[in-house]
Design a protein that fits this description.
Layout (H helix, E strand, L loop, with lengths): L10 E2 L5 E2 L8 H4 L10 H10 L7 E2 L23 E2 L1
Antiparallel strand pairs: 1-2, 3-4
């Protein structure tokens, strides 16, 4: 007989309820971001979306446009106060 798996993984709200990020809507802004397809950024993006659920305006300080050719090259030199809203 195997032991129950006590490993806690995934996303939980403040009440301890597990959240399935696949059931959350993704703002259209995210679909135009270069980081949308980056597995290394997935957790950070999901946490950002979860934090802003129900807000009137979605803001992302890490947004990098898929259509901006120089965006990834110049990402390190961007102003920290810059962010994009949707």
């Amino acid at each position: 007989m195997s032991e129950p798996d006590d490993t806690i993984s995934g996303f939980y709200d403040d009440d301890g309820t597990k959240i399935d990020p696949n059931l959350m809507g993704k703002p259209s802004l995210c679909t135009t971001c270069k980081k949308d397809d980056d597995i290394k950024e997935e957790m950070f993006c999901t946490l950002n979306r979860m934090d802003q659920q129900g807000e009137d305006e979605f803001k992302c300080d890490a947004y990098v446009s898929k259509y901006d050719e120089d965006a990834m090259e110049n990402e390190e030199t961007t102003d920290e106060d810059e962010c994009i809203s949707f």
